[in-house]
Amino acid sequence: MKPLDSVSVLVPAKAEYVSVVRLTASGIASRLGFDIDDIEDIKVSISEVISRMIDKRVSSGRIAIDFHLFSDSIRIDFRLSDSSPKDIFAGGADDLAFEIIRSLMDEVNLNTDNQALLSMVKKLERAV
């Protein structure tokens, strides 16, 4: 299915830019109609992924985050600007971070197309 819109953000692989991505995600998710709890789930998941990327020092360059907007969901893809190793969830605290992301998002896929390091989906639940 083709997205309605896509928004891309490219930030340096530094902790001080996580808030920029979280703010972007919040605005996009709000526009789609997500409630505050789902928006918080998305923001926490984004923080976990980017923190793992920075902690593992997988990239000295930039992190690309692509938001794909659908009528019933949002998909967020994380890509690296270089050829750094792509295994950011390698045991210990990383397992806990990955389980947090899996519990907050509806779908989580690692290394989906050799370009996206991680792809995650949150489905929009509309009130009946």
From TrEMBL:
<protein>
    <submittedName>
        <fullName>Serine/threonine-protein kinase RsbW</fullName>
    </submittedName>
</protein>
<feature type="domain" description="Histidine kinase/HSP90-like ATPase">
    <location>
        <begin position="11"/>
        <end position="122"/>
    </location>
</feature>
<dbReference type="InterPro" id="IPR003594">
    <property type="entry name" value="HATPase_dom"/>
</dbReference>
<keyword id="KW-0808">Transferase</keyword>
<dbReference type="GO" id="GO:0016301">
    <property type="term" value="F:kinase activity"/>
</dbReference>
<keyword id="KW-0418">Kinase</keyword>
<dbReference type="InterPro" id="IPR036890">
    <property type="entry name" value="HATPase_C_sf"/>
</dbReference>
<dbReference type="Pfam" id="PF13581">
    <property type="entry name" value="HATPase_c_2"/>
</dbReference>
